[in-house]
């Protein structure tokens, strides 16, 4: 545990299907315990947050999002968020993965802080399972 000196115990509640998937991945990756997997997941989450926080300046990129099409009101909320940023969203592609799961790819351009705002608003919605922002700087 690189640099960790004091442990804290926490309790969390998870849907059974999410925990089952997590346990499956832990077994495939050879983790010795859930705690080890959760610590690794939290470290990855922190690293991702720090990486996305460094997105500054004029950028071109893509937001990929997976969400539950059957989540009540979600589709309209996602559309409303995208309409708030019509100056930054260049195009989007929507794909039906299953009856209820959708994949959306959104091409974006603009200041990195605005692109992060779009990403975080999408990520915060109930029914959105995954969101990832990938950008490159626009060289003048």
Shape designation: globular
Helical residue percent band: 40-55%
How can the largest sheet be summarized? 4 strands, antiparallel
CATH topology of the largest domain: Alpha-Beta Plaits
| Number of discrete helical segments | 4
GO biological process, one term: response to nickel cation
Binding site for Ni(2+): 83, 94, 96, 102
Domain Ribbon-helix-helix protein CopG: 9-47
Pfam family, one: NikR_C
Structural account:
- By secondary structure, the chain is of the alpha+beta class.
- The chain folds into 2 domains: 16-52, Orthogonal Bundle (Arc Repressor Mutant), CATH 1.10.1220; 57-137, Alpha-Beta Plaits (2-Layer Sandwich).
- It contains 4 helices and 4 strands; from the N terminus they run ααβαββαβ.
- The protein has helices at 16-29, 34-53, 74-84, 112-123, and strands at residues 58-68, 89-96, 101-111, 128-137.
- The chain has a 4-stranded antiparallel beta sheet, covered by helices on one side.
What tags apply to this protein structure?
140 residues, alpha+beta, Arc Repressor Mutant, Alpha-Beta Plaits, 2 domains, four-stranded antiparallel beta sheet, 4 helices, globular
């Amino acid at each position: 545990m690189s640099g960790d000196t004091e442990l804290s115990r926490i309790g969390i509640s998870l849907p059974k299907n999410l925990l089952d998937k997590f346990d499956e991945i832990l077994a495939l990756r050879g983790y010795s315990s859930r705690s080890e997997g959760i610590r690794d997941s939290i470290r990855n989450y922190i690293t991702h947050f720090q990486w996305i926080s460094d997105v500054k300046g004029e950028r071109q990129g893509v937001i990929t999002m997976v969400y539950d099409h059957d989540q009540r009101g979600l589709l309209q909320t996602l559309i409303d968020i995208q309409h708030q940023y019509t100056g930054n969203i260049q195009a989007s592609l929507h794909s039906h993965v299953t009856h209820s799961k959708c994949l959306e790819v959104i091409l974006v351009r603009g200041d990195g802080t605005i692109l992060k705002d779009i990403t975080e608003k999408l990520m915060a919605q109930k029914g959105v399972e995954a969101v990832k922002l990938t950008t490159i700087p626009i060289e003048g």
